[in-house]
Amino acid sequence: MIPREAEKTMKKLAKRYPVVTVTGPRQSGKTTLVRTAFPKMDYVSLEEPDTLDHAKDDPRDFLKRYDRGAIIDEAQRCPELFSYLQTKVDLEKKMGAYVLTGSQQFGLMSGITQSLAGRTGIIQLLPFSMKELRSAEMLPKSLNDLLFRGLYPPLYDREMEPSHFLSSYVMTYVERDVRNLIHVRDLSQFQRFLRMCAARTGQLLNLNSLASDCGITHNTARSWISVLEASYIVFLLQPHHNNFGKRLVKTPKLYFYDTGLAAFLLNIQGLDHISIHPQRGGLFESFVVSEYIKSRFNRGLAPDCYFWRNNTGDEIDLILDRGINLDAVEIKSGATINPDFFSGFERWVKISGGDKGSSTLIYGGTSSMQRKGVSVLAWEDVDFTAI
Fold this sequence. Notes:
By secondary structure, the protein is α/β, with parallel strands linked by helices. 43% of the residues lie in helices and 17% in strands.
């Protein structure tokens, strides 16, 4: 098993909270992580119909059965449990008594905010990070292979073709999660919406254009984007609020958490195809931003990242808000360093005043260096916890 960076954080939370909650997309390794971290705890899955019926029909008796604590998998399927769990942990005041997992933010997090606020530590577990694969000596050797394959654990835990896994993943996701979260009359229309989102990864989100291309209303597109966010398929990177005297773009940018899933939805057929695909730059940008978010989530931290763009087209791909300083990160998929890669930093320095933090360029090449006051990092050399 590939060790997960989040395990250490999760064990710390178990010493400080009576409940630990692990959420994230399906197949990101939540169950494996919690069972490995807490091998002596009883395990129960609410995916099993009989178990779910017991929890819904008699929550008190269900919790009494696991009186010493337990791992409760897919806890969002029984929100009735949360109020009873609140009473139980308040009385017993035992740290790390229960571990909850769930793959839908809507169901799980709404129950937690209502009943378990202040009583649970939360970990958001995404698919493998590049650092985790590197430590296990399983990191793909080429950038194209990494972007095409993605980082879902089943693709590394066992031999499996990305297309086989991702095809089943999309069908399962659409058939189960989408039907549970919203009422979609035409599932093929939602699948088209997914593909249209993949075609826009790394771009400003234009809901009117997206809705028009999919034959749906603006409000439906907004609702469906929320569903994709809630199930950890996509995320919206917000623009930074500082304007430095210039008018800012206020629209978020759309990214996929996993480039393999986005590549599958784009019908990319292999490594030769991805190397010339017009969305390769967007996929690389999506990979870098999601890797930074993973580094934050694995430490139990909220993302502190944005992008910056004004109405004249000046842009920095990633702004890391350190409170006092703003660190600038540019992301370029090309393998050869081009002088144009640094033009964004030059404009940023002039507009921001030049004293707002460090400048880093992450690119698709193989050599890291210092150049023009910028830390130039090859994609393989990046330690996202140190940026």
